Amino acid sequence: MRTILILLFVSAVISGCTPNVSENKNVTTGDMPNISEVTIDKVISSLKGSTDKDSYQRLEKGVKHAASLWRASDGTEEEFVDFCEKNFTGDSDRLFKVYEKASRNIEILYGYFNEITLGLRKPLDEPMGEIGPIDEMFGSYSVGAHLIEDMYKNKIAFYIALNFPYYSLKEKEEFGKNWSRKEWAYARLGDVFTSRIPSDLIRKAGEVGSESEMYIARYNIYMGNVVDGTGKSLFPADMVLLAHWNLRDEIKSNYANKTNGLEKQGTIYKVMTRIIDQSIPADVINNKDLKWDPATNQVTKDGKPVDAASENNARYQQILNNFRAMKAMDEYTPLNSAIKRAFEGNMEITQPEAEKLFREFLSSKEVKQVAALISKRLGRDLKPWDIWYDGFKARSGIDETKLNAITEKRYPNAAAFQSDIPRMLMTLGFSKEKANYIADKIEVDPARGSGHAWGASMKGSKAHLRTRIPASGMNYKGYNIAVHEFGHNVEQTISLYDVDYYTLHGVPNTAFTEALAFVFQKRDLMLLGINNTDTKKEALETLDNFWSLYEIMGVSLVDQGMWKWMYDNPEATPAQLKEAVLKIAKDVWNEYYAPVFGVKDQTILAIYSHMINAPLYLSNYAFGYLIQFQIEQHLKNSDFATEVERIYKLGRLTPVAWMKEAVHKPISITPVLTNVDEALKIVK
Length: 684
Ligand SMILES: [Zn+2]
Prior knowledge:
By secondary structure, the chain is mostly helical.
């Protein structure tokens, strides 16, 4: 279900820790901004004479911003003064010409780099025979890795920073209310060069990041070796589950198991708590030779007890490594903490706003009502792992073999799906002309994996829909995913081709592209000409969505709390961090879950692997669900095709500004809650 966005500049500048970021050899730790206040003031007053009055604010911000990026290695103070005097454009009409040129060139860079990456990766993404080492080496080559470094070296970065200054999120939201589209486009150009993080810090963060990836990727539990007091296992001998995703999914799949599902869930839960508190023996991780009873923590080999030391807080050491690598960047960016960079920078919603919204949701009266319904459907009191209750999934009610027969016949190959795109768009309400216009810009390719959508980055290029089609034709599961990816492609096309300014192309963040993908995916049967007659379907989906939000918001609060604690205690040891996380997880549980589940002091909200290998990412999911829900509600009550076009043409405003324009409402928990109230009347 992934979508591939190549944001060369943006990811390099804002996240500062992606593996393909620049290596700026000019700038190393210690090479700090060196332009004095006096010089900055001197430049501003000397340029005022040749500047339009309405550009005074831009002049001041621009000079200050360029100065904040200038290092001793870029030139002397006199050279800085000279650079500003030669290159600041005080005339508003001429500035637009500058914008058009910069924007055209950036589109060329983004666009062709994207095409090169697509081309180099093609043998990995499409079935083109055996993959050899040479394919992987070319496929992982990052063509844009040195772009940012080059832009500072040739001074393009300073030229843009000086003329199109950076506006903070707060400023964007405040000034943005009165900005024209052109002013928004200028501000987004200003986002391209906002900070200059030394290359050794970026490299260090990349190294710790991949170490954490590996730590998580190898965290397998051999479930056939997880035994009870009598040495018996409830799980198949060959079952290997990766923490935490597979463990969680195994809990979910056991809701249908009426024989010993509850017992199996309880065992997995015990495994999870031992991972969180680190009492898990290090030797049972990723090891097929040892048997382990998580209830007593006894480890045996060939029936004989063995001594096995615990993991010794390795989990928390990984988190601290990431924290320190990211904290080291703080002094080099205007968003001077990793928390700010993740929230204000990447998501463009502040952490306090996110926290407030999540706490409101978790306190809603609906939580207890839905919990009571789940307990009734399960026929028992709730257990803590029921945060992953899976019983609201709406089944289509139509035999899947019948659906397979339909899709296999209709789509024997990628070309068949390709030629059906205009019809699908017209079925959704697009005019014939618009349907062909969009269809012309999407290319359907056969995929090696389950499929993905890869957008274009310049006009004239196509978005790619990768879908896996077996020799027998596309089965229903593959079709369902292909329709999801198709939704991504439609968004990618409209938000590139129909947006008025290139620097505004795209959507505010990943939640906004997922929204349209899910909207399409939900209509997959309708596109086959089948009407789903299950009246409870929507109510079930609403309840499912609500319960997922209840879980992920709690998890996100633990993640946020952990990062705030680390900033308050930067010298903490792994053992101290563990104690803090256990306490934070219990506090969130006791406040919002214990009253519902009837049991206190559970640590389960700290199980997510994202806390280790995707620092501060979890809150994105919660916003994703909320935004999707609001967009879906809006599209349900309006002319679908007209609104999809209008909304996705808005481009990359901030999430708050985008939602106001798109659905005429702020991001809010109210629509979900209102719909849950309705759903509770339908699902008993
Ligand atoms: Zn997706």
